[in-house]
Amino acid sequence: MKPSKIEHIGIAVKDLDKSISLYEEMLGYKCYKIEEVKDQKVRTAFFKIGETKIELLEATEAASPIARFIEKRGEGMHHLAFAVNDIEKRLHNMKETGIDLIDRKARKGADGLDIAFLHPGSTSGVLIEICENKNKD
Ligand code: ZN
After folding, report:
1. Separation of 103 CA from ligand 1 center, angstroms?
2. 119 alpha carbon to ligand 1 midpoint, in Å?
3. Containing structural domain, residue 81
4. I need a labelling partner for 80 at 20 to 30 A (CA). Which of 11, 30, 48, 117 fits?
5. Sequence-distant (≥ 6) Cβ neighbours of residue 18 within 8 angstroms
6. How many angstroms separate the alpha carbon of residue 122 from the centre of ligand 1?
7. For 27, which DSSP code?
8. The predicted structure's pLDDT at residue 134
9. How far does the centroid of ligand 1 lie from the alpha carbon of residue 98, in Å?
10. What pLDDT, on a 0 to 100 scale, did the predictor assign at position 137?
C-alpha cells in the first residue's frame, strides 16, 4: 500500500457537540470542519494535528455503522486512515494479495476524500481506511 502518512484517526462518539468541546479543550485547537456524510449516516468533526487529523464520528441514525459500533464496544477508537495515491489500484492490489475489502470501490467520504475500508478480519482486528485526496494541488 505504501501510504504517505496516517491521514486521520477516527473516533466514535455519542454526542458530537460535547466531544468537540472536550477535544478543543484537551488539544488546544479549534475544530476546523463539521460535516454530515449522509451515505454513511454520520456527522463528523475534524481537528488538525500537524500532518494528521482526528475525525470524531457521531451516528445520525440507529442503522449507522457508528451506532452499531458504540452499541457493541462503547465510544472509542474506530478506525485508522492511511493516505495513498491511486486508491483504485491499491484496492485492486490488496484484493489480489488476499485482504478482505469492505469497499471494492472507493466512495466519497468526509473532508473531500475518496475512501475505502478494509475488513478488520484481515488487518489484525483494526478497521483500516485508505483514502486519497484527489482535489489536492
Ligand atoms: Zn475516516
Report:
1. 13
2. 14
3. 5-132
4. 30
5. none
6. 18
7. H
8. 86
9. 23
10. 52
CATH number of the domain bearing residue 97: 3.10.180.10
Answer whether 49's CB lies under 8 Å from 29's CB: yes
Q: How many residues does the chain have?
A: 137
- Per the domain annotation, does 39 fall within a domain? yes
How are beta strands 33-37 and 114-118 bridged, if at all? Answer: unpaired
From CA 110, how far away is CA 33, in angstroms rounded?
A: 10
105 CA to middle of ligand 1, Å? 16
Cβ proximity of 109 and 87 under 8 Å = no
**CA R_g for the chain:** 15
Asked whether residue 84 is domain-assigned, the answer is: yes
Contacts of 125 (CB under 8 A, 6+ apart): none
**Ligand 1 mean position to 10 CA, how many Å?**
5
How many angstroms is it from 8 CA to the middle of ligand 1?
Answer: 6
**In-domain check, residue 137:** no
Whole-model pTM: value is 0.93
Half-sphere exposure of 111 (CA within 13 A, CB side): 24
